[in-house]
Amino acid sequence: NMIQLLFFIALSEMGLILILLFKTPLRKLVILGLDRLKRGRGPIMVKTVAATVFVVFISSIYGLMNIKRRLIDDTVVNPTDQILLFKRLLEASLMGFSLFLVLMVDRLHHYMRELRVRRKSMEAAKKQNRAFDDGKANGTEEIKALEEEVTKLQEKLKQVESELEIKSKEADTAETNVMALKKQSEGLLLEYDRVLEENQNLHNQLQTLDRGLSRSRSKKLA
């Protein structure tokens, strides 16, 4: 029976919608089934069935309008036409409701697939942020270690500069002492030359006196 088939289809679609709305183990299976159905030739088959049902729906609406027109034109109420009118109306309502439910199932599946893709992208972004934060923390630790090393090197440089300044002062003092000793030695050399010259003069004077004494002695003896 057409009406029973349409009832079954409508109830099945309502069941699919309920499964998609609530998080149950069946929802993953239904989503996987719909994913496979929309691959390959699945979409063409679904569109073909939907188009057929839509054509039948339009045909039912047309037959319903003819029966209604005939009932209006007839003066005597025909029970058969009334039953046909009710049957066509029920069929048209069920087909329209089934088409609407098919559209609802398709939209729900589409939104859930987009939601799943966005969740995966958000998880990937979170992982990247965590990796970036970890790298940033490691980079901060490396920067701190480098800053500490630079501080130590600056302290060593200051220490070396202070030692160099002390050595420079000691060298200046030693150079001053050397210059003083040099001047002192030059003075001593000059004094030595003077004393040597005086000694030589005294020696010459002594020789001269000695010669004079020798001459005077020789004259006395003569």
Automatic annotation (TrEMBL):
Keywords: Apoptosis, Coiled coil, Endoplasmic reticulum, ER-Golgi transport, Membrane, Protein transport, Transmembrane, Transmembrane helix, Transport. It comes from the Eukaryota. It is found in: Endoplasmic reticulum membrane. The keyword Protein biosynthesis does not apply. InterPro entries: BAP29/BAP31 (IPR008417). One of its GO terms (cellular component) is endoplasmic reticulum membrane. The chain crosses the membrane at residues 6-23, 44-65, 85-105. Residues 136-212 form a coiled coil. Gene3D superfamilies: 1.20.5.110. It is a multi-pass membrane protein. GO terms for biological process: endoplasmic reticulum to Golgi vesicle-mediated transport; intracellular protein transport; protein localization to endoplasmic reticulum exit site. Belongs to the BCAP29/BCAP31 family. May play a role in anterograde transport of membrane proteins from the endoplasmic reticulum to the Golgi. This is Endoplasmic reticulum transmembrane protein.
